[in-house]
Amino acid sequence: MSVQSAAADVDIDLRQLFASLARNFLRILVVSLIVTGVAFALAWLATPHYKAETRLLIETRESVFTRPDGTNDNDKPILDEEGVTSQVEVISSTDILKQVAQKLSLSKLAEFDETQNMSALSRLLVIAGLKSDPSEIPPEERVLKKMREKLNVYRVEKSRVIVIEFSSENPRLAADIPNAIAETYISVQGDAKLESNSAATDWLAPEIADLSQRVKDAEAKVADYRSQSDLLMGGNNSVLATQQLSELSSELSKVRANRAAAEATADSVRKALQNGGSLDSVPEVLSSDLIQRLRERQVELRANIADLSTTLLDNHPRIRALRSQLADLDGQIRNEAEKLMKGLMTQAQTAQARENQLVADVNTLKAASAHAGEQQVELDALQREATAQRQLLESYLTRFREASSRKDRNYLPVDARVFSRAVVPSEPYFPKILPIVGAAFVASLLLMAVATLLRELFSGRAMRPATGARFEPIDEVAMPAAARQEPAVADEFYDRATEEARTPMIAEPDIAARPQPVAGPPAEPESIDEPAPVAESEPEPVAVARPPRSVLGEIDVENAAEKLIASGASRAIFVSPEGDEAAASAILVAREVSDAGLRVLLLDLTASGAASRPMLDSGLFPGITNLLASQAQFSDVIHADLYSDCHVIPVGTADPVRAMRAADRLPIIMQSLTTAYDLVVVECGPADAQGISRLGGDATEVFLSMLEPDDEVTQAAVKLIESGYPDLTLVTPVGHQPPGTPVPGRRSAA
């Protein structure tokens, strides 16, 4: 026999634990007062230290009126975060600190040189070799080491302000040193600019002299080459041959246009004369004054003939005379048109001759212009060289004059200024007697209280037996599940199984048979030390000869959890034909698998929330109906079990009718949940095979939860097996603690 505890052995007695503080209050107070007195004495005897600070602003001090011409943004000082941080390093550099130390003669002060006025204890430590001899370090390095210990230079965040902070035993020195460091920094920056300016003038002077000579040589080469190549310049800064070629080309275009116009006009007059057509359509004929007068006379004769025709016959001498004159006018008009045509042809021939002459001249100038272009290329190269040398010389001369004027006038603005100088502090920053004494008192009080509590806790005086702790005798061999049931429930199972054994039942080949129950429940122990013996009134052969209590072959919660773990199932579907009370099987199995270390989620698909309410102690949480109705997300509907590490999705608070319209999304939701969890337990309530068809998938186990092996359970099992679930497993929660209460060893609600 072994003894196991059903609850924790001992609890902490908080009243006894904190009562120890009252019992040891005097000792705690005395120790705290002693520590406070020691802290007060140390703070009172400590050498006071004073602190002062100087603030620098890094900014461009160059005025727009004095800024050199031609400068751009690249020439301005860098005032970004890296640039200001670099100035912090410059301020705390060794060169600046050396200058300040020499200026203020810090090496003569005992505060910065510990070799002066060394205490007897320090000398003994040096002699014993426990401390390095400070005299072996050069005096300058000793002063710099002390200055760096007391100096703090930093940049104010998100600004271009640099703070120089210094602490010293002398308040006057605490203000003088940061001011001296700031002044020295500005002086060093000015000297650096002066040095850079002097170096620029020293470099520019010989360069300007050399450039002046090179400019002269380049311009002389341009002039010599121009005279040798006979490249005469015309208007618009172009070669004369090129300019003449352009003019002749323009004149040639005009001559060709005139010739073409004359030929076209002569051709149109010729066609009109040959075809006997009207000459009024030719503009040149209409513009002739003689032809116009003849046309007017012709119109007048025709008008007279028309007037006389009304009173005279056609053979009348007067009418015949007028018609004879009209015929003579037509001949004169044609003769004038022929003369005009000959004139146009002559004009076209003249234009052709002029065109031929111009073409010959253009060809001649083309050759000359091509030769001049080749020479112009070389001339342009020489001119570019001379121009570049001249521009460089002019820029050097401008910068040299500016640098010389700044050097002569001593105008070299530094890109920093002191906007807050350190003042002599009136109060020391260390030691602050009141805060030190108060902190020492509070800290010692807390430490003594914690030490007293730990002492009381480790001594065991603050421990008491746990509430409800009891010990039960348990056999070394594991008892069957049916033997752990209540006596009344076990007898009822036995009677019902005896009655149903006479009727044929459907055998389930793949369901593990439940272990045989022991005849009668175990005897209740009377005490921890002396367990009561097992009742011997019932003979052992009777227990062996009794038939099994249920022919349905149900298994308990532990075996169901072991089966899920061993099979590696990702989904476990529970059907409860007996209603909400049978839903306890799904809760107990989910908690059992979760305690084994797997990630488990229970999905409650019952109408009343029978599976989720015992796990959450409430039915007002959003759940699967809210998810189906698109009123919540996964993170909103997944909750933690109050009594285990299992997670649960309750029924929810949305309208069930609206949620069931989106029932087609259940397979997608199940796939997502099986991806995130090792096992998804679904409590479906009194559902049939068609109702659970959407929830199945790979590695799915179907369980039938039962409280009593009645006809209703048997019929539900038969229907599920016939509907395609031959591997149906029956599981019962009878004999286990109700799921609404915490189990020892598991997490409880906060």
What is the terminal separation in angstroms?
Answer: 36 Å
Number of helices: 22
The CATH architecture of the largest domain would be 3-Layer(aba) Sandwich
Let me know the number of strands.
15
Which stretches are poorly predicted, pLDDT < 50 over at least 5 residues?
1-9, 468-551, 741-750
Overall, the morphology is flat
Percentage of residues in DSSP E strands: 5-15%
Q: What name does CATH use for the topology of the largest domain?
A: Rossmann fold
Average predicted confidence as pLDDT:
77
Number of domains: 4
Please list the strands of the largest sheet in the order they lie side by side: 11-12-10-13-9-14-15
Q: Structural class given helices, strands, pairing?
A: alpha/beta
Radius of gyration: 60 Å
Largest sheet: 7 strands, mixed
What is the share of helical residues?
Answer: 40-55%
CATH superfamily of the largest domain: P-loop containing nucleotide triphosphate hydrolases
User: For this structure, what is the CATH class of the largest domain?
Assistant: Alpha Beta
SSE topology:
Layout: E1 2-5, E2 10-12, H1 14-23, H2 25-45, E3 50-57, H3 81-91, H4 94-104, H5 120-128, H6 139-150, E4 151-155, E5 161-168, H7 171-229, H8 240-275, H9 283-286, H10 289-308, H11 317-409, E6 417-420, H12 433-459, E7 463-465, E8 471-474, H13 487-500, H14 540-545, H15 557-567, E9 571-575, H16 584-595, E10 600-604, H17 613-616, H18 624-628, H19 634-637, E11 639-640, E12 647-649, H20 656-660, H21 666-676, E13 679-683, E14 700-705, H22 711-722, E15 729-731
Parallel strand pairs: 9-13, 9-14, 10-12, 10-13, 14-15
Antiparallel strand pairs: 1-8, 2-7, 3-5, 3-6, 4-5, 11-12
Helix pairs in contact: 1-12, 2-12, 4-6, 4-7, 7-11, 8-11, 10-11, 15-16
